[in-house]
Write a structure and sequence with these properties.
Elements lengths: L6 H11 L4 E4 L2 H8 L6 E6 L7 E5 L3 H7 L5 E5 L3 H8 L23 E6 L5 H10 L4 E6 L2 H6 L4 H23 L7 H14 L4 E2 L4 E4 L20 E6 L1 E3 L2 E2 L2 E6 L5 H20 L6 H14 L11 E3 L6 E5 L13 E4 L2 E4 L3 E4 L2 E5 L4 E3 L12
Parallel strand pairs: 1-5, 3-4, 5-6
Antiparallel strand pairs: 1-2, 2-3, 7-10, 8-9, 9-12, 10-11, 13-14, 15-18, 16-17, 18-19
Helix pairs in contact: 7-8, 9-10
The structure holds zinc ion (2 copies).
């Protein structure tokens, strides 16, 4: 499947909406999303008019790869000079030169000036300086952010299928590792076994370094696996994901390695309830802030508000953390059908134990559907 059915057209509409003439896209993931190019050195120019062919620039190392990956209508150029220099030269090319008047527009200050947008979160200060040096007369630079990211938030069916496949692979890998037994092995051994299993099953890579954290270590939301044996009769948190065809999965399960205390069971059930309620509330319409509040209210009511210090979830796609965010400080924009987000409340009692349960969910008009599938009731592992 070629990447980007309709993506550059939708981006062109957004470029026009932002009163830009051309957008320069340089972030590797954004370039991949638009063009299909998986190399590390590529630039894309997209004009505001849909009939302007998007332009793609790379260097000699990617000559063959870019022909295979970057489809029409992209105008491909393999250049021997700096990509920025080539892209700026491309502004004056036939395909970008359609609308000579510029978006500055009549009656607006700076009328006739043409605007080149760049992603201010992706360009370095040095690249920005270089771009200013290179920019031809009659053009000005305008920093924008998240134009491609806004498109990436809503996944198409091919993207959802890839994330679903990554999640299924990750579930299978964890199932195999749990069958081999985890108590008495070190956290690091289990993490390595899990990552090896994902690779063996066809993952390109883990989508992030796996978290395997037992006992008091599970109280750290971002625990690094230690060379410490997993003891019996405690909680074990595993947060893991696979990357497949560029797309990431992300889920978390917390297990009992034997008999738990009453308090540990209560906290587990609390987190499970908060997770289930937040997931049940997920659909097109509510904001990420509202979904966060559903889980947070339940955890606060149980007296553990201060032990849930992170947001309830985040978008997942080509990147493990992307828009939209689901947190106290997230935007109040409604979530949309096609968003793929995690729902992952947790309660962390410092120095004692922690519980997190995380599902990866595709948002629909009337509800969410989990893309991962391991059970969420408390399970004892040996
Ligand atoms: Zn996770
Ligand atoms: Zn996550």
């Amino acid at each position: 499947v070629s990447a980007g059915e309709g993506r550059t057209e939708r981006l062109a509409a957004s470029v026009a909406e932002h009163e830009l003439d051309v957008l320069l896209v340089g972030g590797a993931v954004d370039v991949r999303y638009l063009s299909g190019f998986t190399g590390t050195n590529g630039l894309v120019l997209v004009g505001a008019e849909p009939e302007q062919a998007p332009r793609f620039y790379t260097d000699f190392r990617y000559a063959t790869q870019s022909v295979e990956q970057v489809p029409e209508p992209f105008v491909r150029e393999v250049v021997a000079i700096e990509l920025l220099e080539a892209a700026v030269a491309g502004l004056e090319s036939d395909s970008m030169g359609v609308d000579g008047a510029g978006r500055g527009g009549a009656g607006v200050k700076g009328a006739g000036v043409r605007r080149l947008g760049f992603d201010e979160t992706a360009l370095t200060v040095k690249q920005h300086r270089r771009l200013r040096e290179l920019l031809p007369d009659g053009w000005e630079l305008t920093g924008v952010s998240g134009l491609v990211g806004a498109l990436r938030e809503v996944k198409d069916s091919v993207e959802v299928a890839r994330i679903r496949a990554a999640a299924a692979l990750a579930d299978q890998a964890l199932g195999e590792v749990l069958e081999q037994g985890v108590v008495g092995r070190t956290e690091r051994e289990v993490a390595v076994a899990l990552e090896f299993a994902m690779r063996r099953l066809g993952a390109q890579a883990p989508s992030f370094p796996s978290i395997v954290a037992a006992g008091e270590h599970s109280a750290l939301p971002h625990a690094e696996p230690r060379a410490v044996e997993i003891p019996p009769d405690t909680l074990l948190t595993i947060d893991w994901g696979a990357q497949l065809e560029g797309y990431c999965s992300d889920s978390t399960r917390t297990y009992a390695t034997g008999t738990l205390s009453e308090e540990q069971r209560e906290v587990y059930e609390l987190v499970r309830r908060a997770q289930a309620q937040a997931q049940a509330a997920l659909k097109a319409g509510p904001s990420g802030r509202e979904i966060d509040a559903v889980a947070r209210a339940i955890i606060e009511e149980a007296g553990h508000g201060e032990h849930f210090g992170h947001g309830v979830g985040h978008g997942v796609g080509l990147e493990i953390h992307e828009a939209p965010r689901l947190s106290r400080t997230a935007s109040e924009q409604p979530l949309r059908a096609g968003n793929v987000v995690t729902i992952e409340p947790g309660v962390y009692l410092p120095g004692r134990f922690g519980v997190r349960i995380e599902d990866l969910v595709v948002v629909g008009e009337d509800g969410g559907e989990a893309l991962n599938g391991l059970p969420k009731e408390l399970i004892e592992v040996a």
